[in-house]
Design a protein that fits this description.
The chain has 374 residues and is α/β, with parallel strands linked by helices. The protein is built from 14 helices and 14 strands.
């Protein structure tokens, strides 16, 4: 039985009102979503490998200053032994990206002479172990010239390449040269950890009027790190000679550089579950060393552990401990400073021996607990 006409009109009127309200609510919902401005939210930080960060720095500085050029073995047509210089030869040509013979003494001497003549060379060693072939040029020619000329002759050059132990390359390719070169006045020595360090410090090194030894790590090249928009800009630099606190803590200070900063952060994360808060200081620069930042951290935590991949005798950690002993932070120590280092032997080839020759996370944790008397 049909409803009377008057009732049907009422039903149609109610239906129209409900449809109108639905449409209105839909428009309101869209306007609310627009007001929330999801499309304006900050994008996730970009992941950039250390290799690509170095490549960005080289590209930007080659573009910025026509005096900058790169030379070394396989840096041009092969795009670099570790692909750090990928694409640069095609972009800048033979005069700016130069493949050299396998003669470190020869091409390092050419680079130092070019720097004295007003250019800004970047001299790549396929590994810093091979820089021993050219150490006379690095030390006697580059490091000492500014002093010996009474400040008249600058030598703006960057010596860069992988440093420290890699994997499966044995004794003649596995030294850490941080302490070697940091021992010598006239050089600045830089040792980056993550992508931000790598890009910002390399740009600063290229712009510096002094010879800079730039110690990369082969095992870090392919590791991605988040990089902010600021770090990806062409104006981004990291000052040489300034350390960075990577993690705040109150119980013990861990001081490290290069790959082992990551090991320290991993150890700190493990110990945090046990209520031990580690402050991790990333040195970034070995010479000049930011002793003030280390002292400030030690005065806060009252304990110090240094971590490095190099040998213990006359190492970076030994220098840090000596500087703390001689300075105001010594009076704040509640226990002796301790060092975690590589083992005092040439690097073995066998993997199990290699793993036990360089610091592991468990070694850092053990040394921290020993320092805290736990």
């Amino acid at each position: 039985m049909l409803a009377p006409p008057s009732n049907r009109r009422k039903d149609r009127f109610k239906m129209a009102l409900s449809v109108k309200s639905v449409l209105r609510s839909g428009r309101n919902a869209v306007s609310i979503l627009r007001r929330r401005a999801f499309h304006r939210s900050a994008p996730a930080a970009v992941q950039v490998t250390v290799r690509d960060a170095l490549n960005q720095a080289l590209d930007e500085e080659l573009e910025r200053d026509e005096r900058v050029f790169l030379l070394g073995e396989e840096v041009a047509q092969y795009d670099g032994a570790y692909k750090v210089s990928r694409g640069l030869w095609k972009k800048y040509g033979d005069k700016r990206i130069i493949d050299t013979p396998i003669s470190e003494m020869g091409f390092t001497g050419i680079a130092v002479g070019a720097a004295m003549a007003g250019l800004r060379p970047i001299c790549e060693f396929m590994t810093f172990n091979f820089s021993m072939q050219a150490i006379d040029q690095v030390i006697n020619s580059a490091a000492k010239t500014y002093y010996m000329s009474a400040g008249l002759q600058a030598v703006p050059i960057v010596f860069r390449g992988p440093n420290g132990s890699s994997a499966g390359v044995a004794a003649q390719h596995s030294q850490c040269f941080a302490a070697w070169y940091a021992h010598c006045p006239g050089l600045k020595v830089v040792s980056p950890w993550n992508s931000e360090d790598a890009k910002g410090l390399l740009k600063s090194a290229i712009r510096d009027d002094n010879p800079v030894v730039f110690l990369e790590n082969e095992l870090m090249y392919g590791v991605p790190f988040e990089m902010s928009d600021e770090a990806q800009s062409k104006d981004f630099t990291v000052p040489i000679g300034k350390a960075k606190v990577e993690r705040q803590g109150s119980h013990v200070t861990l001081v490290s550089h290069s790959r082992y900063v990551g090991h320290c952060l991993d150890a700190a994360a493990v110990l945090a579950k046990e209520g031990i808060e580690c402050e991790v200081v990333n040195l970034r620069t070995i010479r000049p060393m930011d002793v003030e930042s280390i002292e400030a951290s030690v005065m806060k935590t009252n304990h110090l552990v240094t971590v490095e991949g190099g040998w213990p005798q006359f190492g970076v950690g030994a220098e840090i401990c000596a500087r703390i002993m001689e300075g105001p932070a010594f009076n704040y120590l509640d226990a002796p400073a301790t060092r975690v280092t590589g083992v005092d032997i040439p690097m073995p080839y066998a993997k199990i021996l290699e793993d036990n020759s360089v610091p592991q996370i468990k070694d850092i944790i053990f040394s921290i607990k020993k320092t805290l008397n736990m």
